[in-house]
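Reminder to self: tokens first, then the designed residues, so the page reads top to bottom the way the pipeline ran.
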């Protein structure tokens, strides 16, 4: 028994969703689950196949990226998770995948245009793509800098991480987050579906127009506004 068992279990369950949802191959991808009162998060160990994972194998790390408890090495992306937890209050789950369509957009260094209501049900803006980091940042503490690359992108575009819970890291792949690890996984699946739809839309019509403002507003408020009426 450990005081971290609840986040170990939550991180384990969320990680196991990734292969089930078709969002990862081999050991790609990682999910973490945080407990802000304890100031730590549980994250997948590095390079362990999903079928060999168990809650006990999740590594406990603090918001500076130091391992607090666990025998295995944490995911190589741990420092990116730590930076985001440290600076973005209120997020308790982070997911990173190399899901095919999301990654294809990231490799194209393009924001995913808001073409339809599926996208608008979740966010009212294009899914942002953070530009590739400069050579100095790459040579330095790469995974740590990826966290700042994401935060700088949000600052430059004037986005609120509580409203837009997903990003593409240019030339790399998506990161998503949420109030829980479960919500972050949900956001990863949404991002991948929206990325695929947007890709197909451009295949059918290269100059397909973006969704018009009235529909963006309607769909978003139906789910998120003070008078939301979608769901139970
Ligand atoms: Zn990656």
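Designed residues (232 positions):
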């Amino acid at each position: 028994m450990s005081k971290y068992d609840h986040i170990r279990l939550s991180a384990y369950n969320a990680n196991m969703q990734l292969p089930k949802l078709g969002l990862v191959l081999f050991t790609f991808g990682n999910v973490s689950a945080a407990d802000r009162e304890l100031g730590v998060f549980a994250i997948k160990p590095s390079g362990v196949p999903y079928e060999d994972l168990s809650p006990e194998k999740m590594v406990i790390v603090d918001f500076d990226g130091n391992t607090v408890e666990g025998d295995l090495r944490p995911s190589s992306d741990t420092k990116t998770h730590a930076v985001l937890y440290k600076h973005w209050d209120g997020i308790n789950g982070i997911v990173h995948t190399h899901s095919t369509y999301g990654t294809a957009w990231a490799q194209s260094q393009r924001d995913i245009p808001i073409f339809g209501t599926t996208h608008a049900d979740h966010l009212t803006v294009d899914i942002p793509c953070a530009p590739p980091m400069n050579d100095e940042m790459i040579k330095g503490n790469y995974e740590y800098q990826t966290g700042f690359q994401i935060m700088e992108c949000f600052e430059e575009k004037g986005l609120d991480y509580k409203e837009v819970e997903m990003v593409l890291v240019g030339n790399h792949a998506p990161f998503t987050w949420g109030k829980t690890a479960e919500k972050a996984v949900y956001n990863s699946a949404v991002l991948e579906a929206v990325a695929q739809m947007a890709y197909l839309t451009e295949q059918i019509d290269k100059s397909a127009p973006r969704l018009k403002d009235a529909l963006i507003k309607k769909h978003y408020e139906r789910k998120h506004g003070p008078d939301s009426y979608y769901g139970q």
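The chain has eight helices and eight strands.
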